[in-house]
Amino acid sequence: MKCYSKMSTITQGYLDHQIFSIVSQTAQELGVRAFVIGGYVRDCFLGRPSKDIDIVVEGSGIALAEAVGAKVRSNVSVFKNFGTAMLRYKGIEVEFVGARKESYNRDSRKPIVEDGTLEEDQLRRDFTINAMAFSLQQEDFGALVDPFGGIRDLAAGIIRTPLDPDTTYSDDPLRMVRAVRFATKLSDGDQQFHIVQESLDSIRRNLDRMAILSKERIVEELNKILVTARPSIGFRLLEETGLLECILPQLVKLKGVETVEGKGHKENFSHTLEVLDNVAAAEMQAIAEGRLKDYVFEDGQEVAKVRTEPNVWLRWAALLHDIAKPATKRYDPALGWTFHGHEVVGARWIPKIFQSLKMPLNEKMKYVQKLVSLHLRPIALVTDEVTDSAVRRLLFDAGNDIDDLMLLCNADITSKNPRKVARLHANFELVKAKLIEVEEKDAIRNFKNPITGDYVMELFGIEPCNTIGMLKEQVKNAILDGEIENSFEAADVFMRAKAAEIGLFPVK
User: What mean pLDDT is predicted for residues 88-117?
Assistant: First the structure.
């Protein structure tokens, strides 16, 4: 944590950007008071870079934004329903809002908003560390306005509400999840943040208020937790406070160890969180090294782009990869505890989970479903003899998601036995090498059947029928099993031979 003793050293570099002096001068011309507030101020004291600035104005935030926009020749986006405006200037995104006070109806998540002062605006903020402000008045430019001791709480690593937490959380219960999010996001190797006991107790008392929240708002916070460096911090807090039971009860069912005849199974909740952290660490390292690609369509063409930000859907796959273990748990006296088919059942559950949380049911859901269904396949290759055929089929089934799948599966190797972990990781490297070898030789990752339905119909003079699909499937399996090369010539010879076996011959 940086020293806060001299304000001049704190604001240096943070309020030097030209936009602050422009806002200050413009506010004076309009006869209003303006302040930098919230996350930018917090990150200033934490020594963290930030390009998002919130300006609160005692007056019209929209009017100040438009006046500033005119000076810097920047387009201003106005959101009249929210009383906010936003502009971009020299790589900085600045949002303007009028100072306001809020009151809540218990049956609604939408506040009653009225014009207010800076003090009233700070009072409605979620946490003390987000309620600090820097003055942009020319007479006290850069002065800290901190009525709730946010600077003290930052130094102590504390998440605390400005008001009584029962009031704060009851008014807007999403703040309970946000408390967890900030405790997760702000914790790093140097300092761990924690939610004060008073707030933890209040969250448990106000769990029923979660019912008024939209699923979309909750998921937005979950996604922000998932893309942190150590998302397990957040999910442990969600479970400890009871929030996880409200949001994702299937995950809570992973907790606990059942014992029969003195034999217990792995504690699957802790295992899941360990895998999630492993995935987060491995992905960030791979991103830093430029080793991961995302495939997008541009102008009808599939284009590979180097990944620069965490893939939240990979994190969801890690979170849900063992979700069906409680439903598939069995005890066999000879084998011990088994979870046969949990990857299949888990994949079947993904659409229902996504639907319940109002998450997208498109290719993103299918991506998570794919990784959950396939997450044991590479592990099986580690323990069994690796054949080219098995590798080809894995490449075919995973497609462009093979790298993410391998990252997830490698992260899934956990054990209290370090020798076992080292052995499995070593074997896993052999599988990765085999994948590269087979892919370079056979080009299976983006497999497209060399034989098309139109070609079969024209060659044999037949109308659409099941025979066409059968012949194409035989060609695909022959390529994946290594019987023939992945080329049109080899596929055509093979397909004609299979067609002849059922009395089908070319018409020309």
Answer: 78
Distance (Å, whole) CA 103 – CA 190: 38
Residue 378 CA to residue 431 CA, distance in Å, equals 7
In angstroms, the CA 51 to CA 40 distance is 8
Burial label, 426 (beta-carbon count in 10 A; 0-12, 13-18, 19+): exposed
The two three-digit tokens of residue 440, written as one number: 């370079």
The span from the CA of 381 to the CA of 390, in Å, is 8
Q: Provide the token pair at 237.
A: 């807090």
Torsion angle defined by CA atoms of residues 156, 159, 161 and 162, in that order, rounded to the nearest 10 degrees: 30
Q: Angle CA(373)–CA(220)–CA(66) in degrees, nearest 5?
A: 145
pLDDT confidence tier of residue 4, bands split at 50, 70 and 90: very low
Domains defined along the chain, listed by start: 1-156 (3.30.460.10), 288-442 (no CATH), 453-501 (no CATH)
Of 254, 275, 369, 390, the closest CA to residue 323 belongs to: 254
CB 316 within 8 A of CB 368: yes
pLDDT band, very low/low/confident/very high, at 7 (cuts 50, 70, 90): very low
List the 144-145 sheet strands across, edge first: 76-79, 84-89, 92-98, 52-58, 33-37, 133-135, 144-145
Return the structure tokens found at 381.
């290759």
How far apart are the C-alpha atoms of 38 and 96, rounded to whole Å?
12
Element (H, E) at 391: helix 388-398
**And the tokens for 362?**
């498109």
Per-residue tokens: 340: 């046969």
Confidence class for position 112, pLDDT limits 50, 70, 90: low
Pull the structure tokens for residue 93. Answer: 């995104």
Q: What is the pLDDT of residue 396?
A: 86
Q: Which residue has the tokens 């592990």?
A: 379
pTM over 0.90: no
The answer to whether residues 449 and 487 touch, using CB atoms and an 8 Å cutoff, is no
Query: What is the rounded average pLDDT of the residues 233-258?
Result: 96
